[in-house]
Amino acid sequence: MDYLFIKNMHIGMAYLSITLFIFRSVLSVSGSSLLQHKLLKILQHIIDTLLLIFAILLTIIIQQYPFVNGWLTAKLIALFAYIIVGTIAIKRGKTAVIRFWASIFAIAIFAYIYGATKAHHALSWLAIM
Ligand code: HEM
Question: What integer best gives the mean pLDDT of the chain?
Fold first, then answer.
């Protein structure tokens, strides 16, 4: 497995993750019972686990690590925030309004992570503009 393959898999999993998340959050906000489908839950876990495995491999290849390099610390913390806010959007939010805003917030965190990667900087998109 070479660097480009691992990087493309990581990016691919990131796109799959956010696409599936948006789909599930639409189901969550609209109160659809399809949300409870096991396949959707399992798929999200598999995708997010692979995303993280490829992320770890990438850190080893480029020899930059969270808690050593700021932009990777930012990515890791933001990934946890994405997961926590994501669970509010999908199940923990008591009302549809809370789940809606949690969904928007989770998508914004995802955009932040993407920018922090592109910029290699915790300021994310602000560092590129
Ligand atoms: C939702 C979470 C994540 C998203 C959306 C994401 C997105 C991306 C993208 C788009 C790239 C390719 C950048 C480019 O080609 O310019 C990338 C690369 C990378 N990501 Fe992630 N990532 C996420 C999580 C993580 C985590 C948690 C880590 C590790 C703590 C990580 C470590 C890396 C590394 C080391 C690279 C290679 C950067 C380079 O070669 O310059 N990623 N990520």
Answer: 97
Q: 40, 20 in Cβ contact below 8 A? A: yes
Q: In this structure, are residues 40 and 24 in contact, taking their beta carbons and an 8 Å threshold?
A: yes
Task: pLDDT band for 70, please (50, 70, 90 cuts).
Answer: very high
Cα–Cα dist 68/24, whole Å: 34
pLDDT bin (cut points 50, 70, 90) of residue 57 is very high
Site of tokens 């080893």: 60
Q: Which residue among 8, 10, 60 has the greatest number of ligand 1 atoms within 8 angstroms of its CB, and so is best to mutate?
A: 10
Residue 73 CA to ligand 1 center (angstroms) comes to 12
CA of 115 to the centre of ligand 1 (A): 10
